[in-house]
Design brief:
Layout lengths: L5 E10 L3 H12 L4 E5 L14 E2 L13 H5 L3 H9 L12 E3 L2 E5 L4 H10 L6 E3 L18 E4 L2 E3 L1 H11 L4 E3 L5 E6 L2 E8 L2 E12 L4 H8 L7 E13 L7 E4 L7 E7 L5 E6 L1 H6 L4 H15 L9 E12 L11 E4 L6 E5 L6 H14 L27 H5 L6 H25 L1
Length: 436
């Protein structure tokens, strides 16, 4: 005979363990909500770990010479994140590693006047400072550098340590879910989640389920027969360059377009090797290229803008990634984080942060929406309804450079990441088999 289901009553159940879901869970826990976060692979998988770690104030969106809605929306984000890094913000990030407390913006000789004109014509309120020759970073101290150089207030975080920090703050609320043993239930327009474990059924009920799974939101909605809120995917292909050049660097190179020609962030792989992670326009253009074509283009770009940097012994890899966003007219970039109400289900919301920088903005929107809907924390949630001992805690995903260059890692670390990759692939294969 089957036993009666065990009911897990929550205020908020979050699906998706990227930066958006983890940040939101941190905020909700501090506000006293009974919350649980469910991740089916590893925390930070895919889009979050593929980020360059930039917490920017929107300056890279103002290269047309006008402050756009996007730049105005995120102008205060570096200040917000800095407060959290000091333990003075709405989320405690004191255990997150800061890679750089600034980002550079530079131009080549051919467009130096354009950059100067742009910076002189915009109301930047101290968000940009010119860098004198004697303060230039090592990579730009070469005698052949003749462009303009400015320092932005943007900061760069180690994303792996960020995810680890966020997960540690809510360790008792994070669970790994197996979708082959879980299913959605609906009753009179109310959503619940049924989980099978060792012959026992656990039913998760929540005042609100919030999908924060990035690209996975599309699959989650499809599993419920829904197509709204609608999603758009912005395909990118980043480039990873492993080299022995002894200096880190974080900067945007300005080109002829209104977005950076090339964005470089640096990540230390071991005691001797750095990985330069290349984004910007090259990553957008690279979405339509083969890996070989994109690597050739990246080699030519670096040789053109930094010809004095020797990359002759570098190793090159590419990383295709889909940036998930809420659907916009004419495929425009969203200017803000997004939280939307799913149709026909009274307790389901769907959210996309649109970029790492805006994770705090997404959490603020959710909290405002909870208040507007009169949803408050349930008091005296019974400890007997806990999922502890039922579901395991999810691991932290590896970074793209650790996956791309495992031979450069410590043997134990490399084996660990290969095992995590194998488990993730097994989950994906199980999901596909379940669909078929």
């Amino acid at each position: 005979m089957s036993s009666s289901p065990v009911y897990i009553d929550l205020d908020i159940a979050i699906i998706g363990g990227g930066v958006a879901g983890l940040w939101l869970a941190n905020r909700l826990k501090r506000q006293g909500f009974a919350v649980a976060l469910f991740e089916h692979k590893a925390l930070g998988s895919d889009q979050t770990m593929a980020s360059q770690g930039m917490i920017h104030g929107g300056m890279k969106y103002t290269l047309s010479g006008m402050l756009t809605g996007a730049s105005e929306t995120i102008a205060d984000m570096p200040k917000h994140w800095r407060a959290c890094l000091c333990g003075e913000g709405d989320v405690d990030l004191r255990n997150t590693r800061l890679l750089s407390d600034h980002f550079y913006l530079w131009s080549g000789n051919s467009i130096s006047s354009k950059l100067s004109s742009f910076l002189a014509s915009t109301a930047l309120n101290g968000r940009v400072d010119p860098v004198p020759d004697e303060r230039r970073p090592p990579v730009l101290r070469h005698a052949d550098f003749g462009g303009n150089l400015y320092k932005l207030e943007d900061i760069v975080l180690d994303v792996h340590s960020l995810i680890t920090n966020l997960a540690h703050n809510i360790e008792s609320e994070c669970f790994q879910i197996d979708w082959n043993k879980s299913r959605w239930q609906t009753d009179a327009g109310v959503l619940s989640l049924s989980i099978e474990k060792d012959g026992q059924t656990y039913v998760v009920r929540a005042q609100r389920f919030i999908f924060c799974a990035g690209k996975g939101n599309g699959h989650l909605l499809e599993s419920l027969g829904l197509d709204r809120p609608a999603m758009q995917l912005r395909p990118l292909q980043q480039v990873l360059v492993k080299h022995h050049y002894p200096y880190s660097f974080y900067g945007h190179c300005l080109g002829a377009e209104t977005t950076p020609r090339l964005t470089i962030s640096s990540h230390k792989l071991n005691n001797t090797d750095y990985v330069w992670y290349l984004g910007g326009s090259i990553a957008e253009q690279g979405a339509g290229m083969t890996s070989e074509e994109l690597i050739a283009k990246a080699q030519a770009e670096l040789a053109d803008i930094l010809p004095w940097v020797d990359m002759s012994d570098a190793e090159w890899k590419t990383l295709p990634i889909d940036r998930a966003e809420p659907l916009q007219p004419n495929f425009l970039r969203p200017e803000n984080a997004f939280v939307g109400v799913a149709p026909d289900l009274s307790n389901l919301w769907v959210a996309w942060p649109t970029k790492l920088t805006l994770a705090p903005n997404l959490a603020n929107q959710v909290l405002d929406l909870l208040k507007a809907n009169g949803i408050s924390a349930v008091k005296n949630v019974s400890e007997s309804t806990s999922l502890h001992g039922v579901l395991p805690h999810p691991p932290i995903a590896p970074t793209p450079w650790e996956t791309a260059f495992p031979s450069a890692l410590d043997t134990v670390v490399a084996v660990s990441y290969k095992l995590q990759d194998a488990l993730s692939e097994a989950y994906d294969e199980d999901e596909e088999e379940g669909k078929s």
